[in-house]
Design brief:
Helix content is about 25%, strand content about 35%. The chain has 2 helices and 7 strands, in the order E-H-E-E-E-E-H-E-E. The longest helix has 23 residues. The termini are far apart.
């Protein structure tokens, strides 16, 4: 019996998800197997975690990206991990879109609540 859970996310670009994971310092493998309790699951991106359990991300044909993991054995909180990845994903997406529209960051501040305040200007 599989313990794997598939969690729907708001992420839509697997390439940006990979960049976000790497920016956060995770080792990412592509087209690999996610390790779980006595089982493995396919994923487009796999983050090798401490211990015997991993976290993976896969893209569905409709463009949705979902997270796959055996959450019973993870040594990290699934929701905290996904929040961290989602925040970095949003940051990278904003920076990419701003750059495409000619904006440059003039100020970047990390707030006490963990949010990031960006001030941009178009030259």
């Amino acid at each position: 019996m599989s313990h794997f859970t598939r969690v729907r996310t708001k992420l839509r670009n697997l390439t940006v998800v990979q960049r976000a994971l790497e920016d956060l310092g995770y080792n990412v493998e592509t087209e690999a197997k996610v390790r779980g309790y006595g089982d493995r699951a396919d994923a487009d991106l796999v983050v090798r975690m401490d211990g015997k359990y991993d976290i993976g991300f896969s893209e569905r044909p409709n463009g949705e990206v979902y997270m796959v993991a055996d959450t019973w054995g993870l040594k990290v909180d699934r929701d905290d991990f996904l929040h961290e990845v989602t925040q970095r994903y949003a940051y990278l997406t904003v920076m990419e879109q701003a750059d495409a529209q000619g904006f440059r960051v003039t100020t970047e501040e990390n707030q006490a609540d963990g949010s990031i305040r960006l001030v941009m200007q178009r030259w």
